[in-house]
Amino acid sequence: MLEVIAAVSDVWDSDRVGLRISPLNSYNAMQDSDPVALTTALCNALSPRGLSYLHVMRADFLGKQHGDVLGPARRAFAGPLVANMGYSPDEAARAVESGVVDAIAFGTSFLANPDLPARIKANAPLNTPDQSTFYMGGAKGYTDYPTLAAAAR
C-alpha cells in the first residue's frame, strides 16, 4: 500500500491523494491479529507523506473484530481524519466537535437519504437502508428512496 501511495503521489501531489482503510473489517474472512497496532503503524508511516486525508472505518460490518482504531489513528496521523460506520447525526457532530475526527462520511445513510443534509438540518427522521438491495445493479435501493419533499406530499 505504501508503494501505491508513493506511485500515485509521483503523478499527483500527495495533498490530492486520500486513502481509506478498514482495519477492523472482517469481510471475506479478513482479520488481523492486532488491528489497533496495525492502524498505529500504518498511520505513523502515512503521516509524513502529506496526504489530503485518511478515511478510517471505525467498526466491522460483521462484528467479529473490535477495538478503538480512531484514537490511535488520530494520535499517529497528522493530516485530516475522516471516519464512518454507523454514526448518527448527533454522534457525528460530537466526534467532529471533540476533535476525534475532522469529518464523518455517511455511506448507507446517504444512500437511503438522498437529501441527508436537509434531513439532518431539519432534525427529520432518516430512511432505513435496505441492505438486501445493495450491489444488485438496478435502481431499487439506490434511486427509489423518498426525499423529505416527496414524503410531505
The count of DSSP E runs of length 2 or more, i.e. the number of strands, is: 4
**Number of H/I helices:** 7
Number of domains: 2
Rounded radius of gyration (Å): 17 Å
Shape descriptor: globular
What does this structure look like?
By secondary structure, this protein is an alpha/beta fold. The protein folds into two domains: 2-105, no CATH class; 112-153, no CATH class. The protein contains seven helices and four strands, in the order αβαβαβαβααα. It has helices at residues 2-11, 35-46, 70-76, 89-98, 108-112, 116-122, 148-152; strands at residues 18-21, 53-57, 81-84, 103-104. The protein has a four-stranded parallel beta sheet with strand order 1-2-3-4, with helices on one face. Helix 4 links the parallel strand 3 (81-84) and strand 4. Helix 2 runs parallel beside helix 3.
Chain-wise SSE layout:
Elements: H1 2-11, E1 18-21, H2 35-46, E2 53-57, H3 70-76, E3 81-84, H4 89-98, E4 103-104, H5 108-112, H6 116-122, H7 148-152
Parallel strand pairs: 1-2, 2-3, 3-4
Helix pairs in contact: 2-3
